[in-house]
Fold Electron transfer flavoprotein alpha subunit.
Amino acid sequence: MNTPAAVRRVDPRRPAILTPQGLRRIVLGSTEGERGAARLQAAHDAPKAVRSQGPFKHAHVVVTHTERGALGDGARQALAAAAILADAATEVVLLALGPCKDDTAALGADRVLCATDFDASHYQPEAAVTWLRTLQTQMSVQHWFFADHSADGELGRRFAAASGLPASCGVAEINARETRTPASPTHDRVQPHTAVLLLGKGTASTHLPFVGLGLAAQAPAWVNAPHAQVEDLGVQVGDPQSLALEEADFIAAAGNGVQNVPLFHELARSLGAAVGASRVAVDDGRFTRAQQVGATGKTVSASTYLALGISGAVQHLQGIKDCRHVIAVNTDASAPMTKRADLTLVEDSAALMQALLQLVRQGKEQA
Ligand SMILES: Cc1cc2nc3c(=O)[nH]c(=O)nc-3n(C[C@H](O)[C@H](O)[C@H](O)COP(=O)(O)OP(=O)(O)OC[C@H]3O[C@@H](n4cnc5c(N)ncnc54)[C@H](O)[C@@H]3O)c2cc1C
């Protein structure tokens, strides 16, 4: 049996490079990764070949909870890592708890099985473990991949414990042979892949140079199984404005281009968004320091970041690099924020906030 090697600890959040294969590698003082990222982006835009047509002997299985039919960033990265590490005889299978509407072939999946009856409003991890163990008997699984994050991280640990498989948690780096995981404040553990891999943030790029087969398949029936020792109180909807910004999934942020602050707060409340702000808006006293996003404020990773009247200075962009969808509202179509944004609305912020508020009210009345 191989004994894990103890190596000097590195900060997993430290800048890293992307290898040509798309896996993240933590190194000091190199710009190679930026070139790697550019190459991968160029490859992302070109038409792509299918990674493998099979026949498949084994599987890399990725397990995740979906949210409103979408995969989270951690799951997308786990899927990409599973595909990058798979050889031609290894199928990449996605097991989704909940429906999945994402383009899973683009993320490297060959086969997708969804537990569409899964109800996320009830806490029943044991039922999920049972569902996975049913599937385990039907496939020759080489490795199980989970994002080491919230419900996916918990399920990965429970599944490893229930099935007696060795697991690596908080994997900071993975390559074809080994993983690096934090072992102590001073040392990391470098060891061969274990059967269950719980991947930390950013271990692989989702810009793959290939696609998977993306075939939908029938999943075993989901069976509800409340835990005898757990009293399930259901999901309590929290106040998004009392959430730490780093944990918020939807952030409405205001910059110097937002003068009507009460209107902005009304909009944020009605959208159920947490409130962020640029440094200028904070320095002006319109928002608190805890709401500042950017290099000297919070680094956020919301699924949606609505940036109203924010120019997109480099220090602000640093704080939103992990956000998935950025929507910019700005009167200046050439503001740097528009280059980062997935959608730009060239509009006065006050007019847009009024119109949006109206739409939200109408939507709520009709619901
Ligand atoms: C060391 C250092 C650290 C910093 N750290 C941070 C940080 O952590 N976070 C941060 O945010 N900044 C930070 N900054 C400041 C940063 O450089 C910018 O000055 C700041 O982000 C600009 O804020 P802003 O975009 O809100 O304001 P402005 O630069 O004034 O831009 C306002 C934007 O709103 C648009 N606009 C104007 N009126 C309207 C309207 N009616 N409707 C719609 N759009 C409108 C304008 O076109 C413009 O694009 C830092 C700077 C330094 C030097």
Notes: Residues 255-257, 278-281, 292-297, 309-311, 313, 315-316, 319, 329-332, 335, 348-349 surround flavin-adenine dinucleotide (CB under 6 Å).
